[in-house]
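Fill in residues.
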């Protein structure tokens, strides 16, 4: 069945439309081909084209993704995919400050990829690049190039992220830098650009400011350099990007030691090689360094140095911290001392302080050493160990300014371990050493062996821990000296015979110890000697000694402890403790002499106290001591205190004496051979005057107090005293006086009389002030008073034997009992005058006056008896008037007195009636030459004996 007509019509219409559309497509394709051919002809005829805007926008977008912003002076390209940027200014998005400026940057890209808006350079060339440090972090406060004039070519390698760097040159600080090699760009840590150059840009923007600060800080710390070059060879590293082989050289480096001083150290012909990794953790790197010479002005220099340096490298901070250094040098010279063939291993971890150890030849011997030196100023420490020879001593003498060989010499070189401290500029500040020797001569004193620890600081030389041996003697000590003024101080402790070290002292030393006799061996002593060399009069000595069985000035002692201070013109025994059989005495002593002759003393001074007898005093004070103790005789030791001095202006002139001696004892003693019991006294001597201002002693069982003054000496010596005696035994006192008087005459004292025995129970109170010759008690003159009490002092029988018969009856009133006696007296040589003497009792009293002879013991008294004075009975009242008529004459001796009435019974009535008081008619007054009426002597019945 044939198709319908309308269907055929539709088919023909569709076919026509299809032909029309195809023809239109062909025409469009031809038009595009014609346009493309025209563009190609234009590109082929044009070498530089402005970069299309889409490319420029792509570049800016890529830079923005890396955190950068760029300004281009001109940005062109060519059909081969070569992009050229001129006058580039790149800044960080976080800051408007320019961080890089470049004359030109050339990029080679795939031209097809470029038209497809993909920029992945295969090569970049930099020319005239300056990496800038922003003003805000610049040390100068201005934006300036930190890396200048950088030219480089960077190409993509055959491997992913591999970059090939060639022909990189730049100026970094004082260094002319050149670099070449390959690096591996870091892999991306997160989503973002994966192209190597994109990674490089992002790393640049993220780390630039931090690395700028670090590089700037390093550059400011670099010393002045001349001809500095740095060559870097880069080797790819799979993890850290690249490993850098560094070769740094400099013709000269000048290091300033201190900011406030112009001193510098000049280093010449330096070469440094080493390997570095730019990333990762801290690691130890090895550097090889050669130095032609090091010059430190006129202080020190070193030549031909070979160094191997190990250092800690911190890639994140670009910090190279030296750790260890091995050095060898042909010669090092410092402060005039040559150190040859030096080998040093140093620790640099504490820079600027450098620690080292090694060996060197110096002073003709091999020495090992350790050092701690501050490289900035030359200060530090040096430890040395080696043998000390003559050359070494000369070097030490030159450094400390003292002639050491003059005081030390030995046959075998000792081993010395020394430490030196250096100040700024390498100036010696201190030294310290340990030294031990065999036989040695130490300033004219031979010793068997010695050892010491020696230090020196700021002109102060000190030797402590000194051990000196000579025979059986052993001593320890120290020696201090100021090397500037040669003042010194020497200490010794131990046992040394004083004569063994005479060579260290002048002639006063043997003279001083001539007073001592060490019978039990050398004393245990501490000796301190100070002074100044070659200044003899400035020497001072302190000695502390302890010796057993020693004699000082022929005074034997069981033990002697003392401290002496000796200086020119003086010897001071600052303290001594003497232990003798009587007791212990402690005190001090001093002796002064006239310089320069130490034998002519001008002053002796002593202060001592303790328990002792008086025998050492004359040995210490010679004739002055004899005069001081001559009046005293003690039967036992006493507690004694002696203070005083003897002085004179010049030899041969009179001496001035001033002494005080005080003592106390409870035992018997004698003063001028007079017996006394116990004493507490204080005596003073001033020249020829001796005064005892305070003393208390026992006399006759009583207490005697007072003061005594002795003036003059020898036969002309005078004595004056003021004494008070209380509650003494009358009989005992009389006996002591009798015995003392007899001893003064060289006679034997008589046995106690009945009267003395009868008076033994009586008490005596006496006050006496007198003066006169010290050796003649019978020539004393003075006054006093006395009081005697005895219940049976005297019985006065008025009626003789009849009174004795009536004594026991009611008519006993004729016997007068006397118990008290009081008197004032005057002492005139051997005669004692009693102008007033009163003896009293219960029924009577006796008033008397007269004299008593000390030589003959004779009595010559006239007394008036008052038989009933003081009584209260009727008879006492009745017979009181008769008391005025009884006058008695007392004669004889004290041991046998004789009583006689001046008037007989005939005169009694006359006295009662008063007739004796009236003048008789025609009588004449008797003249002094007229004979005195004879006394009426009583008969035996009327005698009045004293019982």
């Amino acid at each position: 069945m044939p198709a319908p007509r309308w269907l055929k019509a539709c088919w023909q219409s569709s076919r026509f439309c299809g032909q029309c559309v195809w023809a239109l497509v062909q025409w469009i394709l031809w038009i595009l081909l014609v346009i493309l051919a025209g563009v190609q002809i234009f590109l082929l005829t044009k070498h530089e084209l402005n970069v299309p805007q889409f490319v420029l926008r792509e570049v800016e977008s890529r830079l923005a993704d890396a955190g950068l912003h760029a300004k281009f002076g001109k940005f062109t390209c060519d059909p081969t995919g070569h992009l050229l940027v001129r006058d580039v200014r790149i800044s960080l998005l976080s800051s408007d400050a320019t961080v890089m400026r470049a004359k030109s940057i050339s990029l080679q890209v795939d031209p097809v990829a470029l038209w497809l808006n993909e920029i992945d350079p295969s090569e970049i060339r930099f020319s005239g690049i300056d990496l800038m440090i922003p003003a805000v972090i610049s040390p100068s406060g201005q934006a300036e190039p930190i890396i200048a004039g950088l030219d480089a070519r960077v190409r993509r390698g055959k491997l992913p992220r591999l970059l090939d760097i060639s022909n990189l040159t730049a100026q970094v600080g004082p260094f002319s830098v050149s670099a070449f090699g390959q690096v591996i760009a870091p892999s991306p840590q997160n989503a973002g650009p994966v192209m190597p150059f994109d990674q490089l840009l992002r790393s640049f923007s993220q780390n630039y400011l931090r690395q700028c600060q670090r590089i700037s800080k390093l550059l400011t710390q670099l010393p002045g350099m001349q001809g500095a070059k740095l060559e870097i060879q880069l080797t790819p590293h799979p993890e850290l990007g690249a490993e850098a082989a560094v070769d740094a050289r400099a013709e000269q480096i000048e290091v300033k030691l201190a900011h406030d001083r112009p001193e510098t150290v000049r280093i010449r012909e330096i070469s440094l090689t080493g390997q570095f990794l730019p990333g990762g953790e801290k690691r130890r790197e090895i550097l090889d360094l050669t130095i032609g010479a090091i010059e430190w002005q006129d202080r020190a220099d070193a030549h031909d140095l070979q160094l191997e340096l190990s250092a800690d490298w911190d890639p994140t901070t670009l910090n190279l911290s030296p750790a260890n250094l091995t050095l060898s040098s042909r010669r090092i010279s410092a402060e005039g001392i040559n150190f040859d063939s030096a080998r040093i291993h140093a620790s640099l971890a504490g820079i600027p302080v450098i620690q080292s150890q090694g060996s060197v030849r110096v002073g003709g011997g091999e020495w090992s050493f350790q050092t701690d030196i501050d490289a900035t100023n030359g200060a530090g420490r040096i430890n040395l160990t080696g043998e000390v020879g003559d050359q070494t001593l000369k070097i030490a003498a030159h450094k400390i300014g003292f002639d050491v060989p003059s005081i030390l010499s030995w046959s075998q070189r000792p081993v010395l371990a020394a430490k030196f401290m250096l100040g700024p500029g390498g100036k010696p500040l201190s030294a310290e050493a340990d030294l031990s020797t065999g036989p040695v001569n130490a300033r004219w004193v031979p010793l068997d062996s010695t050892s010491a620890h020696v230090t020196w600081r700021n002109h102060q030389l000190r030797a402590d821990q000194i051990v000196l041996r000579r025979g059986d003697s052993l001593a320890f000590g120290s020696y201090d000296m100021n090397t500037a003024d040669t003042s010194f101080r020497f200490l010794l402790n131990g046992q040394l015979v004083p004569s063994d070290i005479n060579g260290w002292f002048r002639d006063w030393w043997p003279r001083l110890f001539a007073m001592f006799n060490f019978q039990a061996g050398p004393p245990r002593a501490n000796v301190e000697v100070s002074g100044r060399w070659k200044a003899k009069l400035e020497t001072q000595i302190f000695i502390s000694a302890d010796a057993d069985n020693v004699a000082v000035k022929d005074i034997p002692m069981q033990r002697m402890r003392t401290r002496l201070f000796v200086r020119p013109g003086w010897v001071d025994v600052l303290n001594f403790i003497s232990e003798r059989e009587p007791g212990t005495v402690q005190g001090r002593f001093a002796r002064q002499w006239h310089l320069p002759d130490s034998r002519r003393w001008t002053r002796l001074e002593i202060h001592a106290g303790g328990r002792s007898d008086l025998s050492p005093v004359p040995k210490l004070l010679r004739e002055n001591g004899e005069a001081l103790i001559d009046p005293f005789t003690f039967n036992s030791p006493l507690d004694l205190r002696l203070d005083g001095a003897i002085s004179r202006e010049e030899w041969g002139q009179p001496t001035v004496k001033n002494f005080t001696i005080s003592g106390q004892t409870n035992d018997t003693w004698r003063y001028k051979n007079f017996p006394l019991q116990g004493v507490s006294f204080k005596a003073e001597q001033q020249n020829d005057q001796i005064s005892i201002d305070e003393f208390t002693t026992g006399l006759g069982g009583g207490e005697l107090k007072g003061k005594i003054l002795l003036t003059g000496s020898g036969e002309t010596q005078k004595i004056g005293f003021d004494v008070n005696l209380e509650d003494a035994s009358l009989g005992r006192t009389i006996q002591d006086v009798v015995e003392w008087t007899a001893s003064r005459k060289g006679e034997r004292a008589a046995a106690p009389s009945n009267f003395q025995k009868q008076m033994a129970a009586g008490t005596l109170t006496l006050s006496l002030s007198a003066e006169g010759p010290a050796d003649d008690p019978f020539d004393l003159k003075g006054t006093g008073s006395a009081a005697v009490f005895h219940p049976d002092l005297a019985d006065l029988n008025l009626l003789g034997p009849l009174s004795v018969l009536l004594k026991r009856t009611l008519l006993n009133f004729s016997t007068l009992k006397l118990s008290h006696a009081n008197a004032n007296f005057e002492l005139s040589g051997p005669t004692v005058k009693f102008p007033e003497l009163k003896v009293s009792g219960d029924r009577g009293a006796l008033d008397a006056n007269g004299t008593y002879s000390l030589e003959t013991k004779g009595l010559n008294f006239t007394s008036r008896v008052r038989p009933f004075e003081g009584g209260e009975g009727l008879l006492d009242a009745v017979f009181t008037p008769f008391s005025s008529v009884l006058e008695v004459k007392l004669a004889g001796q004290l041991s046998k007195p004789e009583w006689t009435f001046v008037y007989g019974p005939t005169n009694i009535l006359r006295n009662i009636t008063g007739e004796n008081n009236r003048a008789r008619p025609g009588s004449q007054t008797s003249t002094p030459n007229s004979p005195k009426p004879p006394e009426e002597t009583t008969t035996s019945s009327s005698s009045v004996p004293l019982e």
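The radius of gyration is 64 Å.
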